[in-house]
Design goal:
By secondary structure, this protein is mainly α. It is built from 5 helices and no strands.
Length: 90
């Protein structure tokens, strides 16, 4: 499993919760904080970050689990077909 980057932006409790959600959640969190750190900070500050992350994880897992016919594509390509944003919701 990849390590959560910029753990200090989340604080210890939230960072631990993100990691407990698993590798997909950690990957999404890393993608969000790498590309949109100010948006992540805003979501953390207003208390909506974890709920939005969980919703994103559920959405991505559902799409990837139901697309056996697209196994020739990478997960990111499959998500692009469904126009799933790489950015955090704002």
């Amino acid at each position: 499993m990849e390590n959560l980057i910029n753990r200090d932006i989340y604080g210890t409790d939230l960072a631990d919760k993100i990691e407990e959600l698993g590798s997909i959640a950690t990957g999404i969190a890393n993608r969000w904080v790498s590309g949109w750190p100010s948006a992540v900070q805003s979501l953390v500050s207003n208390g909506t970050y974890l709920d939005l992350l969980i919703a994103q994880v559920d959405q991505e897992k559902t799409i990837l689990a139901n697309e056996a016919s697209m196994r020739h594509l990478s997960p990111s390509e499959i998500l692009s077909v469904y126009e799933i944003s790489k950015a955090p919701p704002c």
